[in-house]
Amino acid sequence: EARTIGFIGLGAMGSPMARRIAEKLPPGSQMYVYDVVQPPMDAISEAFPGKIVKAVSPKHVAEHANLIISMVPEGRHVRSVYLDNETGITAANISDHIILECSTIDRSTSLAVKKHINTNFPKAEFYDAPVTGGVLGAEKGTLAFFLGCNENDPNFKSLVKLLQHVGRQVISCGGPSFGIATKLTNNYLSGLIAIASSEAMNMGMRAGIDPRVLSQALAAGTAQNAILDRFNPVPGVVPDAPSSNGYQGGFKVQLMRKDFALAVDMAKETNAKTILGPLGLKTYEDATNDPRCWDLDSRVVFRHIGGNEN
Ligand code: NAD
């Protein structure tokens, strides 16, 4: 059956995602959007005349849309969007709704919201569905979704159909909160590889090796990795890497710090021993507080440790 779509949180990720969905709306149908600030709502509604309804609250979205995506910064924002007494999604009657919560947050917030929904609206479905691929992936529709459900889930096929407008891959991770666990695991590893790659490049360069030669050599051996290949932290090695553009674009260092902290918390909660977790977290905290790094791509950690950028 045709569902009405709602989109909450029109930031760096949410805006391009919502636009891609708006482009594919069937004739005559409308999408309900909400953000705490007005400009991104005005922008999308101007871009798609007659197709966008600017809602006044998440509750308002949920009163009209029964397939809702949310993309806000942190757990506290997710709580507010879903649980606020007067204005939250659960203040509406969401008895037949399907909800995709795409923010990168802690597992306990996601599970608490899901439990609240399942308790009060037994037929509604709530899934954690964080994404990887960044702003560029959102604009190009090449995101990957880590979906907190099983492939046999009755809604899986229709979710894939919706998400294919925004993403290239939808990976069903097994069950509630497993999408988030997958995302945090990914960013933990990718964050550590970025630090290790920065340290290794700095070391080799200080020994006198040209960074291009060094990167080629590492790519040929057991140290080969996606950071060196696509997001090389040394400016000038990979032309379209953020580092080669003054570390502009890419994944901001303060977002890496947030995700890394969530991952380290998950390791504690699950009694998973990590040796590098606290060191990695301290590194991203320090880099975030380094005025030469703030707001730049997280691979700016190379600059933070004193790498030569010339
Ligand atoms: P952003 O700060 O650019 O956008 C967040 C938006 O949410 C803003 O427009 C803000 O006004 C809105 N918002 C905040 N509180 C709200 C509320 N209570 N109700 C409605 N709207 C609210 O952040 P972003 O970069 O779009 O990231 C969103 C989420 O996606 C984060 O959890 C982030 O970690 C994750 N993520 C980001 C990237 C990336 O590259 N930026 C990549 C993957 C995942």
Summarize the structure in short:
The chain has 310 residues and is an alpha/beta fold. Helix content is 45%, strand content 12%. It is globular and about 65 Å long.
Question: What distinguishing features does this structure have?
Answer:
six-stranded parallel sheet, N-(1-d-carboxylethyl)-l-norvaline Dehydrogenase, domain 2, binds nicotinamide-adenine-dinucleotide, 13 helices, three-stranded mixed sheet, alpha/beta, 2 domains, 310 residues, Rossmann fold, 9 strands
Description of the molecule:
This protein has helices at 14-23, 39-47, 58-64, 75-83, 107-120, 134-140, 156-163, 178-206, 211-219, 226-230, 253-269, 277-289, 301-304, and strands at 5-8, 31-34, 52-54, 67-70, 98-101, 125-128, 131-132, 143-147, 167-172. The protein has 310 residues and is of the alpha/beta class. It has 2 domains: 5-176, 3-Layer(aba) Sandwich (Rossmann fold), CATH 3.40.50.720; 181-304, N-(1-d-carboxylethyl)-l-norvaline Dehydrogenase, domain 2, CATH 1.10.1040. The strands form 2 sheets. A 6-stranded parallel sheet has the order 3-2-1-4-5-6, sandwiched between helices. Helix 4 (75-83) runs parallel beside helix 5 (107-120), helix 8 (178-206) packs across helix 11 (253-269) and helix 11 runs antiparallel to helix 12 (277-289). The longest helix has 29 residues, at 178-206. It is globular and about 65 Å long. The mean pLDDT is 96. The structure holds nicotinamide-adenine-dinucleotide. Pathway: Amino-acid degradation; L-valine degradation. It comes from Aaosphaeria arxii CBS 175.79. It is an enzyme of class 1 (oxidoreductase). InterPro entries: 3-OH-isobutyrate_DH-rel_CS, 6-PGluconate_DH-like_C_sf, 6PGD_dom2, 6PGDH_NADP-bd, HIBADH-like_NADP-bd, HIBADH-related, NAD(P)-bd_dom_sf. One of its GO terms (molecular function) is NADP binding.
